[in-house]
Design brief:
Layout lengths: L10 E7 L5 E6 L4 E7 L9 E5 L10 E6 L9 E14 L2 E2 L2 E6 L16 H13 L8 E7 L1 H19 L15
């Protein structure tokens, strides 16, 4: 498999919340630490690793959100090289909230997936169901608008990388070099 080794064809995900958790951790950029934001009050848990794409800045001021499909949960602070395969368009009380769906390049159960239509449909339904229900008991509004294809996700990543580079004046926006693709 020939993988392009540069952004946005491959991205670096920083995991904030490993799959199976109800704790919502967030990275505090100013302090450089992970903080417990809240415990989900609904009877749900993250059914994917959740974090952000390194070297990006979304329109909400945070890094671009990322959902990571990987066979085993990782840990908070783990950096994972991944490929964007699509994204979930949403809106919440703060406005548009796009979440890029990625697969881990180092996981042979997912690394072959290149497009959203290769992800098992039930897996996509589980993710949507999580986002439709995870804030219900907190009395917060979330509208799941639906899945978007890989091209839409790559465009979000490009825009968010440009925003990051403008913010950082190019000093630190390049992120980390990706390792060579395994043969």
């Amino acid at each position: 498999m020939a993988e392009v080794d540069r952004f946005p064809s491959a991205v670096e995900i920083v995991v904030e919340i490993p799959r199976g958790n109800r704790n919502k951790y967030e990275f505090d950029e100013t302090a450089g630490v992970y903080r417990l934001d809240r415990v989900l009050s609904s009877a749900v848990f993250y059914n994917f690793d959740y974090g952000f794409v390194e070297g990006t800045r979304g329109g909400d001021g945070d890094h671009t959100d990322a959902l990571l499909l990987i066979d085993e949960p990782t840990f908070t602070g783990c950096h994972v090289y991944a490929r964007a395969v699509g994204g979930l368009a949403m809106q919440d009380d703060k406005g548009d909230d796009f979440k890029v769906l990625c697969v881990a390049l180092a996981d042979p159960h997912y690394s072959h997936i290149t497009d959203l239509d290769q992800v098992p449909p039930n897996r996509l339904r589980e993710i949507v169901q999580f986002f439709e229900t995870y804030k219900i008991l907190e009395d917060k509004r979330v509208d799941v608008l639906g899945w978007r294809d890989r091209d839409a996700a790559l465009e979000v990543l490009r825009v968010d990388r440009d925003r990051w580079l403008e913010e950082s004046d190019g000093a630190s926006g390049a992120g980390h070099a990706l390792p060579p693709t395994p043969a």
